[in-house]
Amino acid sequence: MPLRLDIKKKLSASSELVKSVDIHPSKPWALAALYNGNVMIWDYKTSSIVKSSKLSELPVRCAKFIARKQWVLATSDNMRMRIYSYNTMEKVNVFEAHSDYIRSMEVHPLLPYILLSSDDMTIKLWDWDRGFECTQFFEGHSHYVMQ
Predict the structure, then answer these.
(1) Buried-most residue among 24, 46, 47, 143 (CB within 10 A)?
(2) CA angle 100, 62, 95 (to 5 degrees)
(3) pLDDT tens-digit series, residues 44-79
(4) pLDDT at residue number 145
(5) 3-state SS class at 67
(6) Residue pair 39/50 in contact by the 8 Å Cβ criterion
(7) Cα 69 from chain centroid?
(8) φ and ψ of 136, to 5 deg
(9) β-bridge partners, 107
(10) Euclidean distance between CA atoms 122 and 108, whole angstroms
(11) What gap in Å lies between CA 9 and CA 117, rounded to an integer?
(12) Where is pLDDT greater, at 15 or 116?
């Protein structure tokens, strides 16, 4: 039997490509990382844009909420990790995280860890309680680490 989806709401914005999406765990928000360098936070109950910000002239490939810190994390094609307060969109921190494009990001649900994978064929574990120190480095992959 084919799956049938009844779409109740549609969120629409003009952009070249959406590179990643995330859902806030307690607010009715969806976060989109866009190829044009923007990130957008949508309220999916009201179908309205809560915040939109130009983070880079390059594509933003990954974006995630960290609700317990009230942050948005974002990575773009300049190999940098950017951290913003999602209340004000003020920059909390920015640093070079890899030597090639960052393809994927995961946030630990309880610990202060961010895992990034990259076209530089590595995975890095970052600890924000240690000032965004890289605490583990996973190498030995023979190709890009996409996710």
Answers:
(1) 24
(2) 55
(3) 999 899 999 999 999 998 999 999 999 999 998 888
(4) 57
(5) helix
(6) no
(7) 14
(8) -145, 145
(9) 114
(10) 18
(11) 33
(12) 116
Is residue 28 within a helix (H) or strand (E), and if so which, with residue range?
none
Determine contact, residues 69/38, Cβ cutoff 8 Å: no
Reported as a single tens digit per residue, the pLDDT across 20-49 is 999 999 999 999 999 999 999 999 999 899
Amino acid at 146: M
- The beta strand positions in the chain, using DSSP E, are 18-23, 29-34, 38-43, 48-54, 60-66, 71-76, 80-85, 91-96, 102-107, 113-118, 123-127, 133-138
CB atoms within 10 A of CB 80: 17
pLDDT at position 117 is 81
